[in-house]
């Protein structure tokens, strides 16, 4: 399975990972198989039936008291693949990941994206807003902090866009203003902020943008 995944044959790799979950005798092998399954699932267009071992995997960590980092990443990868394909099975998986941490932020962002797809803009606005509201531990590796900041900026951008739909001018402008001038999203934020201001009749703000 890992050799196939390495060579980008993810559909075939998934079949092997599922077989390993069913046949392996040692729990750590089954855990590695489902974690690899989650990674490969991100590269597939269609998500079929989820492995039956998924429930046992979750139950194992619940008995330990909490999902560890590897388990949270695995469930996030599965939720990501389901969200991308517009599959409602993503919702309970992502909901159990919500928290004030980097995986929780990503889960909130995907839940917001799901609500946008359903045109539930008020619910999406609340989810994107929550995704922007907390800091993670500053002592993490720089690449982890950079990735989390990128997700937070995407949440601010998404918040600004749904505020356009909900006609929430002030929170929309505030969201765009949180994009730093050093960000690759800055130009888009300024442009979209101008359109939001124009739609609200705030011509001076639009011109300033």
SSE order: HHHHHHHHHHHH
- Note the total helix count: 12
Q: Low-confidence spans: pLDDT under 50, at least 5 residues?
A: none
Our estimate of the beta-strand percent is: under 5%
Q: Measure the end-to-end span.
A: 51 Å
Explain what the structure shows:
With 209 residues, this protein is mainly alpha-helical. It contains 12 helices and no strands. It has helices at 2-6, 10-23, 27-41, 53-64, 69-84, 90-95, 102-117, 121-131, 142-166, 169-177, 186-199, 203-208. α5 packs parallel to α7, α7 runs parallel beside α9 (142-166) and α8 runs antiparallel to α9.
Name the features.
209 residues; mainly alpha; single chain; 71% helix
Structure described in brief:
This protein has 209 residues and is mostly helical.
Topology:
Elements: H1 2-6, H2 10-23, H3 27-41, H4 53-64, H5 69-84, H6 90-95, H7 102-117, H8 121-131, H9 142-166, H10 169-177, H11 186-199, H12 203-208
